[in-house]
Amino acid sequence: MSVSLRWSCCSDFPTLTVGLTQHCHEDNLTCFWCQRLFLEDLDWRSLCDTLGVMTDFWLISVPLDKTSLTSVEKLKRNLAKTNLASCCRFSIPELKVGILDSLLSVSDDLSKLDTLTESVIKKTHQCMREVMEQSDDKVLENALANGVDLMSYMTKFQWDKAKYPTALPLSSLADIITKEVSQMETELKSRAAAYSSVKTSLQSMEYKLHLQTCSLNDIVRKEDLVTSEHLTTLLVLVTRGSYLQWERTYESFSQFVVPRSSRKLYEDGERGVFSVTLFKRAVCEFKAKAQESKFTVREYSFDLEAKQQQERQQRSVHKKEQYGIFVRWLKVNFSQVFIAWIHLKALRVFAESVLRYGLPVNYQALLLHTDKKRSKKLREDLASLFKHLDPTASNSKTDVSFDIPGLCQPEYLSYICFYLNTNLLELS
Questions:
Q1: In degrees rounded to 5, what are phi and psi of residue 365?
Q2: Architecture of domain 222-299
Q3: Alpha carbons 143 and 68: distance in angstroms, whole number
Q4: Cα gap 265→308, rounded to integer Å
Q5: Distance between CA atoms of residues 184 and 191, nearest Å
Q6: What is the DSSP code string of 107-156?
Q7: Residue 252 and residue 303 in contact, taking contact as beta carbons nearer than 8 Å
Q8: Is pLDDT at 153 greater than 60 in this prediction?
Q9: pLDDT tens digits for 311-359?
Q10: For the chain, what is the total number of helices (H) and then of strands (E)?
């Protein structure tokens, strides 16, 4: 025996969704979206999103005629009974309609802008993943809209009248979003390139566990080096199999090498570091002969190493500063572009509703939340419930593909439906 616990994010529809099923003999809750078991006090919706359940959000619009209202009520009952989706009212304010020709043009522009905005959202999120270098669920925790998770923002959407004044015509609102999104895309490219340059610069200087390139400060002591007006000490890298050859030949590389001056200072699994003292005027000659014998000479200076170490530290500090600045910018701008995207969806619903259902403006927008397994059955139910809106539509059009980003229908549907592609964040 099981008890259904209903939940809806919208108080207007308090019993639309069967969200969790609790079995009397268990203390666990089962999420009907993904069939995972959770403790009773956990937020199942947040966990589903964080764990990357393949979910769909559909933004539909139907006119408020008597038949459609009856169909909406029937839809509520069906959803509560079948668990096909959750549903909440999606609030869109009254906007300026304008003339029909202008509305048609704006509708086309909004479709193109939708594609651009989705692309910028995806690029911003991908950049967050690369910069933060954390697991997907940790990155997703930082992908917020107006300080809340993306699902909460969509299900409790409120139009931002300060940012997008409803007194402006649709074309002007579209221009605001276009300018905002384009500016974010441009700045994202420049900031990502600048941060990548800082990161690459530091990586090129960071300590590498190889004697040819690593810092020798921890290997060489001051007493290992002989420095005077005429003498200097060179450090030579010798492979482990060539130690005997080195000992036999290094004095022959120049007549100005100090006899028996070579000392092994350090070795790793592949090679050793040997010191050799010679006159400064013989350095070039010694290097050439050493190279012929496949020995690598590294000149060393405490002052140079200290300077390089200081530069590495400065670049490391600079990278940390730039990391913080860039991550904060990414969080803020991800939020802004996502908010702009949802407002854009609202604009598209409004424009299409006026074009489809006519004046006066009289429609209802609903946000449906389903999953991949239930989407086909939900499409069939919606087609059946709202077939009166297009009596000439054939039954073959009820089973449609959702492959076009932004739109539910590559073919004509009797109701208006836009697809909110949350999987563009690659949650799966």
A1: -100, 135
A2: 2-Layer Sandwich (3.30)
A3: 37
A4: 21
A5: 10
A6: HHHHHHHHHHHHHHHHHHHHHHHHHH---HHHHHHH--BTTB-HHHHHHT
A7: no
A8: yes
A9: 777 777 878 888 989 999 999 999 999 999 999 999 999 999 999 999 8
A10: 10, 12
In the structure encoding, which two tokens stand for residue 172, read together? 């002007």
258 secondary structure, DSSP code: P
Better pLDDT: 175 or 410: 175
How far apart CA 31 and CA 313 sit, in angstroms, is 50
| Interatomic CA distance for residues 2 and 4, integer angstroms | 7
First to last CA, the chain: 32
- Is there a cis peptide before residue 360, judged by omega within 30 degrees of 0? yes
The pair of three-digit structure tokens given for residue 232, joined into one six-digit string: 């200097």
Distance CA 424, CA 252 (A): 68
Q: How far from chain centre, in Å, is Cα 352?
A: 31
The residue type of 421 is N
Measured between alpha carbons, how far is residue 44 from residues 37, 122, 425 in Å?
9, 25, 20
350 φ, ψ (degrees, to nearest 5): -60, -50
CA pair distance 413, 389, nearest whole angstrom: 9
DSSP label of 211: T
Asked whether the whole model's pTM tops 0.85, one would answer no
DSSP run (H or E) holding 64: none
Instruction: Please work out, in degrees rounded to the nearest 5, the angle formed at the alpha carbon of residue 369 by the alpha carbons of 367 and 374.
Output: 130
DSSP β-bridge partners for residue 239: 271
d(CA 117, CA 256): 71
Strand order in the sheet with 231-239: 263-267, 271-279, 231-239, 296-298
Model pLDDT for residues 14-58, shown as the tens digit of each residue: 333 333 333 333 333 344 334 333 333 334 344 344 334 457 899
Q: What is the DSSP string of 4-37?
A: EEE--SSTTSTTS-EEEEEETT-SEEEETTT--E
Q: φ and ψ at 287, to 5 degrees?
A: -60, -45
Crossing angle between the packed helical segments 170-205 and 100-132, to the nearest 10 degrees: 20
The predicted model gives 357-381 an average pLDDT of: 90
What's the pLDDT tens digit per position in 53-100?
Answer: 457 899 999 999 999 989 999 998 988 888 888 999 999 999 998 888
Do the bridges between strand 2-6 and strand 416-420 make them parallel or antiparallel, or are there none, so unpaired?
A: unpaired
